[in-house]
Amino acid sequence: MASRVALVGGNGKLGSIIRQVIEEHDDFDVHSVLGSGSDLAEIEGADLVVDASVPQISVDVVRAATQRGLPVLVGTSGWSSERIASVRPLVEAAGTAAVFIPNFSLGSVLGTALAAAASRFFPYAEIVEAHRDTKIDSPSGTAVRTAEMIASARDEPVEAPHVDQRARGQQVGGVPVHALRRPGVVARQETILSGHGESLSVVHDTIESAAAYAPGIRIALEHTPRVRGVVVGLENFIDIGIGAPRASARPPVDEGGVTGQVAGATGA
Q1: Is 217 a domain residue?
Q2: Positions marked active-site
Q3: What is the pLDDT of residues 183-228, one digit of tens each?
Q4: Is residue 254 part of a domain?
Q5: With contact defined as beta carbons under 8 Å apart, do 48 and 69 qualify?
Q6: Neighbours of 211 (CB within 10 A)
Q7: What is the pLDDT of residues 17-30, one digit of tens each?
Q8: Which of 45, 117, 202, 237 has CB 3.0 to 4.6 Å from 223, enough for a Cys bridge?
Q9: Does residue 265 lie within any of the structural domains?
Q10: Angle formed by the axes of helices 106-119 and 209-223, to 10°?
């Protein structure tokens, strides 16, 4: 039997993409579609609540779902670590799940993980994110998540000179974050890591929202009913593969008379 999903914010840009994924999935049915002004009692009778609303009411959606013992998948931006901490006791007491996904794009999740892993080797880090001019919140949830992951991955705080000046951006976890809002862009984030004599940039561009988000939405939908407690980030449901290199099970490449790096690179 398919799980019934109550979708809050289902008429918005992200909500419309989530609704299409639900309708195309054999294991889920749309129970109800709520707007930002709907009575949250309409979620009753659902098996799962998905929140794609706006930051101002997202916390009410999480509380309404949790109080009814329903797992909730949150795709709404604006959830900092402090805000998530405020609902954690309620979720844990109810014995249900609240899954927060700052970005459903697999490429964005990988970019954030790569930036956090690499940041340990660079004293400086800054984030520049750009979204369409209609995006309400700033910085984006993805930028906040990236900054928090960078901060937690490091033994020492990021070096961020002159952050007392407003033009230096908003600090999140000690990382300066700069937000651009303009037409002609879907979503773009660049994490700039700097050291003495070198820099490394990790850039992710969302080109077409539906195509970029749909695979991650499916993963999150399938995993949310199976977990308990608070989960933050799509990376908890996929094997990103960042860590110590594993021995390859593949046979050695036949170099064909070409030696060294060239053979290894061209034969890969």
Answers
A1: yes
A2: 131, 135
A3: 999 999 999 999 999 999 999 999 999 999 999 999 999 999 999 9
A4: no
A5: no
A6: 11
A7: 999 999 999 999 99
A8: 237
A9: no
A10: 80
Residues 59 and 44 in one domain: yes
Domain endpoint, select from 189, 207, 225? 207
Closest CA to 204 of 115, 79, 80: 115
191 and 127 co-located in one domain:
yes
Q: Cα torsion at 41, 44, 47, 50 (round to 10°)? A: -10
User: Considering only CA atoms, which of 108, 115, 144 is closest in space to residue 242?
Assistant: 115
Q: What is the pLDDT of residues 68-89, one digit of tens each?
A: 999 999 999 888 889 999 999 9
Question: Phi and psi for 56 in degrees, rounded to 5?
Answer: -65, -30
In this structure, are residues 84 and 74 in contact, taking their beta carbons and an 8 Å threshold?
Answer: no
Structure tokens at 130: 């750009």
CA atoms 179, 182, 186, 189: torsion sign: negative
**At 225, which CATH number?**
3.40.50.720
